[in-house]
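Section: Multi-chain targets

For targets with more than one molecule, the full set of components is provided together so that the structure can be written out for the assembly as a whole rather than chain by chain. Components appear in the order listed by the source. The example entry contains two components.
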Amino acid sequence: MDCKRIEEKLPAYLEGALPPEEGKLVEGHVATCPNCRFALEDLVKAGKLVRELDEADPPPWLKQRIMARVREERERKEGFLRRLFYPLHIKIPATALATVLVAVFAVYVFRAVEPETTYLHQAPSEPTRVAAEKEVPKSPEAVPPMVTVPEARHEKDRAVISMAERESGRKPGASEEKEAPSKPAEQAVSERKMVHRPEAAPGVSTYAGKQEAPVAKSAMPPAKEDKVLRGATVKDEERAPTVAAKVTAAAPEGPGYALSLYVRDPAAAMSDVESMLVGSGARKVTREFHDGTGIVMAEIEAGQTKEIFEKLKALGEVREKTKAPEPPAGPIAIKIEVLAGR
Amino acid sequence: MSKTLDNHNTAVHDEDYEIVLSCQKGDDEAFGILVERHQKRMLNMALRMTGDYDEACEIVQDAFLSAYRAIRKFRGDAKFSTWLYGIVVNVSKTRMKQSTQRRQKTVSIDDPSDGPGDSLAGGEASALEALEKKEVQAKVQHCINTLEEEYREVLVLRDIQGFSYDEIGDILNVPEGTIKSRLFRARDAMKNCLKKVLGDL
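Its structure, encoded as tokens over all components, is:
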């Protein structure tokens, strides 16, 4: 075995990791070969030099820096966890949002079906009146007025019917034919029921758009006429005038009081106007907002116009547009246009 | 969380066991204790692996941070310190690769093999005594640096840190036979390098 291969085995030999016979071979060679003996000595010395390397001490800031980074890491992780569970945080606003949406939807649905519900509210009074009218033919004395009623009504009904036609699209001729005096009383009653509907509509139209306002207005005279006629001719229809009165009371025709409010931000002012109205005890407050112009409609008590006017002045520049003569009591429809101004 | 150390092998006594448990429960103060306990050894491992004190400090920081992030994954199959030192070795290797890439762009003018060691190697017999201990140590470190990574790490772990073959096997995840053969070659290379650098040993 040459020296080079012996030298390669020296580290293992020193460690005692060589198989016995190989170890003996190396031992024998080293004993006779000075070069290999020196190499073995050098190996021992080199090992000693390596083992004697001084230990370095960590700088005092090392631990501080490690712990600072650990803290940073924890904050980062907590931040991540917070972000991870952010949906939990948003859950509360989400439920609140859902509640608000449901409420808004409910109000919208209520508003959409309100004409029908208003009609339904009147329904109980309807059968009583129908019953009253039905009773009419039963008593023989009542027959003549019953005959006169359709005739007397004929003119005013035409006006009312024309209103109904505008809504339902019925032909005027057809309705007039049906209105023939020879018809049984029940039929006349059912006819009246249909005719009565537009009368109820204005009561609802307080919130409705501008288009319906003239409808309500033109519907009014026949309603009054109806009251007078019925009061004069059909004396046994005791409930009829109250129904009519109720309808008129609940239906302030068109805006009795219209104002324009000029503000810097109409959209934002809408809520102020609305809350002001609600605060003043206004009912049926509705709002619309299109193309930067808002319309708030409500019903206020008679005598409140001045108060409302003053309160609106606090919100912006107010101009009175129309002001119908104020009734001593009862509701007044108010319409406030909120426009962009200076 | 509790599952992490459930299968802890109680046959291996680990003085860090309780503290590691606390760390796994999120106790940062406990982690501070581990830093205190192991930073010196880790620093010296990194120092001998790289030969650069500042770099070693960076390695220790990175290694502790990695350990902090992964401490929940520590299952107690081996001693915690062994696991920790394995991280140091890995971080050292990664950073050395990065710094080698960086260094290759610059020219290594200050190669110690061209330094005074060589000029003294030829003649003066008293070269070793003439050199300050510090300088000798610098030469030794230089020789360690010349070793290939796989030889260097076993030399550092065995001859400098004095780990048993079992522990080195756990740290490096390498069989004992491989460790020994690498170690013997590392020692032989060290002897040759030192003889060359220091002249008479």
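The interface with chain B takes residues 7-8, 10-12, 15, 17, 39, 41-43, 45-47, 49-51, 53-59, 62-63, 65-67, 69-71, 73-74 of chain A (CB under 8 Å).
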